[in-house]
Amino acid sequence: SSEKTYEHLLVSSPKPGVGFIELNRPKALNALCTPLILELNTALRAFQADSTIGAIVLTGSERAFAAGADIKEMKDLTFSAAYGNDFIESWSDLVTFLKKPLITAVNGYALGGGCELAMMGDILYAGPKAVFGQPEIKLGVIPGAGGSQRLTKAIGKVRAMETILTGDNISAKQAGEWGLAARVFETPKECVDGALATAEKIAGYSQIAVKACKEVVNKSQDLGIREGVEYERRVFHGLFGSKDQKIGMKAFAEKGKPEWSNE
Ligand code: CAA
């Protein structure tokens, strides 16, 4: 199914174990219209279901990761249509079903829904000219795909409040300093290549252990420290039931290289 062709995406696997999705709607700076989101959902689900894929990279173009939800599509939307059809709710599905790590490599504009999509990744990398922001206030609305929650967790309340209330942009440098981006690269290509290299590294580990890592780190976002540590310990104990724990620790003891079974 990775072979499928899409209207708004380029989908490939440029490195072993790595799924690669490029948003490809250049005329609208990758504005996230509903057909694009549906395609993204399909592509991510295909990689989730593909046992040869261990990690996924999502990027846009040099000019724009994504300039937001599609304003032209939204401008005549009514409350009853938005509420009645759960507008934007399908966006949340993108990350809730995805158990494999997703690295978002951001060059150019990541505004509104684009910033929110970038933050849905498990690891965010930025190129030198990445521009983040939640400009919804300028359109008479508010972030609608998790921006007020994820940006606040990422950079803290006062910075998120300032960003969301002013609609001002966050530069790549600031994103790095504030912890919104895990790394800031010197060129757009290095950003994407860096994301692919990290994805390849992750894809080289036991898929069972990788899945558990992602699960427990994500739990820290919802649980208090005590419950979170207890949750982690349960999952840690559970991994002693996996073959890959035996394979990994035996290989270490014998100074060999583990050949993961993903079991
Ligand atoms: N929706 C629909 N079309 C968009 C778009 C968007 N979010 N962003 C850009 N485009 C389109 C433009 O309309 C333009 O199309 P035409 O050539 O047909 O006129 C094309 O992309 C190129 O854009 P610009 O000519 O504006 O390019 P620029 O370089 O002058 O400016 C920009 C770039 C600063 C990103 C500017 O396009 C912009 O401000 N875009 C809107 C950003 C925004 O407000 N995003 C938030 C959307 S609301 C949201 O996302 C809600 C949510 O939380 C889910």
Molecular structure report:
By secondary structure, the protein is an alpha/beta fold. It has two domains: 9-203, 2-enoyl-CoA Hydratase, Chain A, domain 1, CATH 3.90.226; 207-253, Lyase 2-enoyl-coa Hydratase, Chain  A, domain 2, CATH 1.10.12. It has twelve helices and ten strands. It has a six-stranded mixed β-sheet with strand order 1-2-3-5-7-10, sandwiched between helices. The chain has a four-stranded mixed β-sheet with strand order 4-6-8-9. Helix 1 packs parallel to helix 4 (89-96) and helix 6 (147-155) crosses helix 7. The chain is globular and about 60 Å long. The structure holds acetoacetyl-coenzyme A. Residues 28-29, 31, 67-72, 88, 109, 111-113, 116, 135-136, 139, 143-145, 147 line the site of acetoacetyl-coenzyme A (CAA). Acetoacetyl-coenzyme A (CAA) is lined by residues 28-29, 31, 67-72, 88, 109, 111-113, 116, 135-136, 139, 143-145, 147. Its EC number is 4.2.1.17. Pathway: Mycotoxin biosynthesis.
